[in-house]
Amino acid sequence: MMDSLTTVQILDAGLVDWRKLAQALHARYLTGDFAAGLRFVTAIGEAAEAMNHHPDVTLTYPHVDLKLMSHDVGALTERDLDLAHRISEIAREQGVAAEPHAVAEIELALDTADVAAVGPFWAALLTGSAEALHGADVVDPKGRVPLLWFQDTDAHRTPRQRFHLDVWVPHDIAEQRIAAAVAAGGAVVDNDNAPSFVVLADPEGNRACVCTCLDR
């Protein structure tokens, strides 16, 4: 089993086509049409077989989305960096452009003072099995639903917002995304933990976080 990498190691790896979001490396390649996308995916598959490491691939008409993570470690390792570099080489060979700022990921967050009590319920509801609860996360092994994580909080009786969205974006566009949300009527509620995350609210007070991989 390989060692997991720190965020600094990942950022220093020179992966210009890729961005780290919540847990994995993500990339989008603009293939332009389905046939070009299929050629690109076929070449990626051959490289993945040769390296015995396989990405998650989504092939659509105009682009290909890729996700890399070492599931046996539950984190990013050198094998992910190696395959990411190889996929970038394949893209250059085929004349396929990357659009790293287009990637994003949604997490659901639920404030709770008792993960042991509520966690199995949400795991069973979302995935069909309470066994999908891993620590403070509900992880769907089939990738059907977003990650749900439980944010520790004090027990409370007063009604308040318990669910919020964590919107993971590339670290180099976070300020732009926050500015766009503010210009659209939102407000920054808390930026004490920037650039790791910034809490925003819509005009009615519903909150969400813009998250990046930095300072984690």
Automatic annotation (TrEMBL):
Pfam families referenced in this protein's UniProt entry, alphabetically: Glyoxalase_6, Pterin_4a
Annotated organism of origin: Intrasporangium calvum (strain ATCC 23552 / DSM 43043 / JCM 3097 / NBRC 12989 / NCIMB 10167 / NRRL B-3866 / 7 KIP)
Coiled-coil segments on the chain, per record: none
Name of the protein in question: Putative pterin-4-alpha-carbinolamine dehydratase
CDD domains in alphabetical order: PCD_DCoH (cd00488)
Family assignment from sequence similarity: Belongs to the pterin-4-alpha-carbinolamine dehydratase family.
The keyword RNA-binding is assigned to this record: no
Keywords: Lyase
Domain of life: Bacteria
Ranges for domain Glyoxalase-like: 108-211
PANTHER family reported in the protein's UniProt record: PTERIN-4-ALPHA-CARBINOLAMINE DEHYDRATASE (PTHR12599:SF0)
UniProt EC number: 4.2.1.96
Enzyme category, top tier: lyase
GO molecular function, one term: 4-alpha-hydroxytetrahydrobiopterin dehydratase activity
